[in-house]
Amino acid sequence: MDAMKWRDAALDVFFPCRRCLVCDGAEAVEEGICAVCREKLRRLPEPVCAVCGKPLAGRAVCLACTMERPPYSAARCAFLYEDAARDLVRRMKFSGEFDLPARLFGREIARMVGLAGWRPEVVTCVPATARTRRERGYNQAEVLGRRVSRLLRLPFLPRALGKRSGTRSQVGLSAEERRANIAGSILPDRDAARFVGKTVLLVDDVMTTGATVEECASTFLQHGAEAVYVACAARRLYTAEDDLKREE
Length: 248
Ligand SMILES: [Zn+2]
Ligand SMILES: [Zn+2]
Description:
Oligomer: single chain
Distance between the termini: 39 Å
Shape: globular
CATH class of the largest domain: Alpha Beta
Bound molecules: zinc ion
Number of strands: 7
Largest sheet: 5 strands, parallel
């Protein structure tokens, strides 16, 4: 049993029922979320674009994907990035309480991959810069990816890719700025040899414009991956108006 498994087992024994990470209630708490807040986790409304997974009405592939196909084969997100899902993602990202949200999101992602009929051979995650990892103590995408790999019984490559130091956060940037900011910042890392010729499942916490996962997918393909599928916990629906609002 590896260290993470011991830790999971210990959590099950010592924290069979904790308080809800969203509302702090203690009723029917499972995987860190109570029944009421669980109801507030909204799945993405169907139908979605067959390629990028964005909700859309009346067509199989959205206009953006029709005009320029993304480098990944398909992307799907489990929940809308609002209400309880947003709170849980923030917990996972900023508070260090990543275990329980990662379990919940990990299971949803594994289920989603199964439903989509994808056949990944390895699982990996969107990289963080060394500085972010050091400051936060972990990379939430890595925690999530590890969870998904275990559920899918696939090898996990935590360092398939690296993010060049000094890359600015995408938060608060417009779609165009995001693309420019991330371009050239994702590089193959020490696990790179292990994805050559493989179909890769790339895991992240939140997908917004898709600029980051597209850059990651391009890097994978340029360095020998067979295909890339993207699975995220939550999707922030992005419109041109968001470029003006500039919130997180
Ligand atoms: Zn709650
Ligand atoms: Zn699309």
